[in-house]
Amino acid sequence: MPVPANSALLHFDRDSLLTLERSMTREWLETDGRGGYASSTILMCPTRRYHGLLIAPRPASGGGGLGTRFVFLSRFEETLHGGGRSVPISMARYPGLWAPHGHQAIESFDLRPWPSFLYLFGSARIERDVLMAKSRPAVLLRYRVTGQRNEVELALRPLLPFREADALTFENIALDPSTERGASGIRCQPYPALPSIHIAVAGAPVRFDADPVWYRQLEYPADLARGYDGREDQFSPGTLRIGVESGVEVFVAASIDGPVEEIAELWKRETDARKKSLGSCADDPVRSRAAALLVADDFLFRTAAGRSSVIAGYPWFGEWGRDAFISLPGLLLARGEVKRCREALEGALPFLDGGLMPNIFGATRADSSYGSADASLWFARAVRLLEVASGSEESIAQRFLPALTEIARAYSEGTRLGIRSDEGGLVRAGSPEANATWMDAQTADGPVTPRDGCAVEIEALWYALLAHLEDIHKRRGEEALAKEWGARKRLAGAAFLERFWLPEGYLADSWKDGVVDRAMRPNMVIAAALEWSPLTREKRADVVRAAETELVVPVGLRTLEPRDPRYRGRFQGGPDERDKSYHQGTVWPWLLGFWCEAFLRAFGRGEAQLQRVRGALSAFDGEIDKAGLLHVSEVYDGDPPHRPGGTVAQAWNTAELLRAWSLVEEPAVVVAGGARR
What we know:
Shape: elongated
Largest sheet: 9 strands, antiparallel
Number of strands: 39
CATH architecture of the largest domain: Alpha/alpha barrel
Strand content: 25-35%
CATH class of the largest domain: Mainly Alpha
CATH topology of the largest domain: Glycosyltransferase
Strand order of the largest sheet: 1-10-11-12-13-21-18-17-16
Structural class: alpha+beta
Helix content: 25-40%
């Protein structure tokens, strides 16, 4: 990158592909804009239960939420027969072995930007492309054989788990093995509670040989390494046998939304749209920024009812409120999509309940989870950034003012999660048994990072909300309300400095009944970055310097300084071990966006300062081909070499990378508002 629209964004040759240990950690992702996806490794070998060609949600009644994802089609067992020879082009892991050995024939893998594989079969070349359609629910595959004199047969055996994406399945007698044959493919419905899958072929004659069988003990190394069960059985109804002529494109479509007609035409429409999307970033010299622009839409989706929102991360996260509200400004506003961002924020309004926004969205308020004290405050910040991006358009203040007021009143007077304003005007939240902040990891012993009471980023977001309400009412000429919120803001600001500012030149992480947690954590950087802050410019600068000394690494910010005895530098092991390190030193990339914003607010926009921020952001150039292709992983080890971990694609990482770049390029975004100097 930059690349022409018909070229590969990422390329891996045979030598790099055959380093199996490395190839099994490189994963591609295709999304459909409805919460569904396809994903696997660059060898097309599943290493997680979440890998598959057709993973789609089954919405709850009414379609208001994402719903539960199911893996319907895991993969095809693919074999090419011809000239008295056979060559497999698929592979899987079983206990102690790989089978079949499709990697032996692989020549290259390219992202174009959809996954494209090339295999050699004697003098013949076999191409396979995979694409998740966005115009209708379906996964499409294209096969093409060249350099072969005679027709060859492509044998495709579908493996159909038909289970929840988080679960595993095993051989059982409840499954219906029958298959309905059609002129161009098959229809199967293994379980009556789930929809049928339609698999169709276009471009070549096809026949189906019924041979129902269970593939037993498929193994997922990535799941096993994370401390989970990692073996399952998968059902296959038989084999599709396709006659393939040299140079002829063969298309396969799989869908749970009825049979796919005119597959070749659908392929062309979808690939043309992808190529067109490359135009906006093809000339970008920064690889990670170009990648982020390309994949930003991977996280945006619409529910079955039409509401627009954000998938927090792939492959296992759903629609999380905190993540959505942090991500929307970067995913949309940083790309100039103001109207779309407003639509998403308006779509969240019906879920506001007692001043709280859901941490995990359901179809309605009743089945949403309200376990976060900061989701509402991040929502308020997103509204303010929408307002700035719109030129402080009065209709935005008018539309969202009732919600902002409800949040502020509820936080002042008291609501769930122990949230209430104290005598200093700051917000208390949480309890010793449960964290209500983003650092919410828990083990059997309780919260790993207890932060109940007053947490620094909660108070900073609270101060910003009070300042925003003061500003709105001033603009509307409502002096009494402006004075009320202004007085609350000043009270909270004075208490913030008294409780959190440390003589060493940084902010404490939390405060409870006079007890100060002096741990240096990145939450203080959020306070130094926000438009309205109790911090002077000099104090912002002190926080930025302190963070740079102890927390900032090339892929984000550590969640705890290494000198702290609680610091854990490796994010690895089973669930309990990983939870203990999740916020105790593990690096989170999204926080670098706030460090960049704080840096610019503190030190200004001279060329040297801008170059410093550009350098920090460009460090991600080396990350987009390590785990999730074109994506930034959820977390990284605190210790060098900062290995990636967690999900392979995380919304707020991509979002904050884009937003931080917009801060470099658009000075008005940084200097807006009433930040103290």
